[in-house]
Amino acid sequence: MSEKIYVFDTTLRDGEQVPGCQLNIDEKIMIAKELDKLGVDIIEAGFPVSSPGDFRAVEAISKAVENATVCGLTRAVKNDIEVAADALKHARKPRIHTGIGASDTHIRYKFSSTREDILQRAVEAVKFARTFVEDVEFYAEDAGRADIEFLARLTEAVIRAGATVVNLPDTTGYLLPHQMHERITYLMNHVPNVDKAILSMHNHNDLGLATANTIAGLTAGARQVEVTINGIGERAGNTSLEEVAMILKLHKQLGLHTDIRSEMLAPLSRLVSKTMRMPVQANKAIVGRNAFAHSSGIHQDGFLKHAETYEIMTPQEVGVDKSDIILTARSGRHALKHRLALLGYELEKEELNTVYEKFLELADEIKEVNDGGLVKLMKELQGVKE
Questions:
Q1: Over the stretch 90-114, which tens digit does the pLDDT of each residue have?
Q2: Are strands 327-328 and 368-369 parallel, antiparallel or unpaired?
């Protein structure tokens, strides 16, 4: 039986920190409701103390969300925690997400502090948050570069103080997957009370390794993933929700699953992209415009004979209507014949060869030939005047 992985979506917090992607309250509520329908377990609604608008948004989302836990971010500061608790007071399942830097780089340069002081502040923050809510997540910022023995001490201490989840972010996206696996394995083996809390992955994509590092952490024992729709987030972005969800769905041998309704992924990707004014790159895994598009003749031939030759999932699984055969100068006769048949033109081999030569000339000229271009070409070859 597979183990459940809890999906913590931070599109509305970390994702909204992207320049130009700010949302109004109505837009946040709309996306939060869709995330709830998608099946995410936790929605990080914002950073309540950061602005009156963020406070109101977290409060409004707390009222609107029916199933998911609603989470508010704080620093390890009493006022932050009090404000978050106030914003979350209407949530059916509230969570306070508090934390502090864990790497020596952060401790020295960001906090001008010491490991012992950080340890004390972390414990106090968790204990204080627990006076407001039962569910407290602690984040050890820059855990990816933290001293591993200190990280183990910190993890043990905050769990003892009442943390239900310990978030171990690779804040700068620095680690390699095998390093992430080693770090989580170390914590699973060296934190005596690790069974009393869930370890969480929050990986940034500075080196393009966010999803790989997240999966590595899961295979080592982490059971929560912190993700965003389309992988949006600070700098190069966060771990992509759709990538993690489909990796776990397709690789059943991992023995892990989420409650994500995968057929909602593409529609929600488009909604977030439009609302946040953040285009999705065409070759983005799972939800990019070209994720189910085939333009190479070799690929088209194989796909038309049997879709699984080039597709490991169906487009319908992620909410895309169908795969696309894109006709370009790289396309072969099989693809051209297929598209012409759909348009009502059944051609014999010799006739197809003639049409194909003319098609290649047209494709070289205009790059991509759509249905209208094909119909026009066929009429010209048949001597039909417009």
A1: 999 999 999 999 999 999 999 999 9
A2: antiparallel
CB atoms within 10 A of CB 123: 19
Residue bearing tokens 């929600």: 268
Cα gap 40→237, rounded to integer Å: 19
In one-letter notation, the amino acid at residue 19 is: P
Nearest by Cα to 278 from 2, 22, 94: 22
The b-or-e profile of 78-98 (16+ CB within 10 A means b, else e) is eebbbbbbebbeebebbbbbb
Torsion of CA 250, 218, 283, 20, to 10 degrees: 140
Q: Distance between CA 7 and CA 17 in Å, rounded?
A: 20
Q: Residue 135's pLDDT band (boundaries 50, 70, 90)?
A: very high
- Residues β-bridged to residue 2: none
Which single residue is written with the structure tokens 């790159």? 281
Q: Which residues have CB under 8 Å from 20's CB, separation 6+?
A: 277, 278
Mean pLDDT of all residues in the chain? 96
Which pTM does this prediction carry?
0.94
- Asked if residue 9 lies in contact with residue 262, where contact means CB atoms within 8 angstroms, the answer is no
How high is the pLDDT of residue 386?
Answer: 55
Print burial letters for 249-262: b (CB count within 10 Å at least 16), e (below 16). Answer: beeeeeebebebeb
Q: Are strands 69-73 and 42-46 parallel, antiparallel or unpaired?
A: parallel
Per-residue pLDDT, 385: 59
293-312 pLDDT, tens digit per residue, is: 999 989 998 999 999 999 99
Number of alpha helices (DSSP H) and beta strands (DSSP E) in the chain? 14, 14
Name the residue type at position 10.
T
Task: Please give the single-letter amino acid code of residue 272.
Answer: V
Residue 343 CA to residue 375 CA, distance in Å, equals 8
Q: How far is CA 30 from CA 123, 272, 275, in A?
A: 36, 10, 10
Bridge partners for 167 per DSSP? 139, 200
Spatial CA neighbour of 149 closest among 201, 180, 186, 111: 186
CA distances, 140 to each of 7, 131, 132, 353 (Å) = 19, 20, 21, 64
Beta bridge partners of residue 226, listed in sequence order: 8
**318 or 20, greater pLDDT:** 318
Angle at 315 between CA 33 and CA 200, to 5 degrees: 50
Q: Are 95 and 132 in contact (CB under 8 A)?
A: no
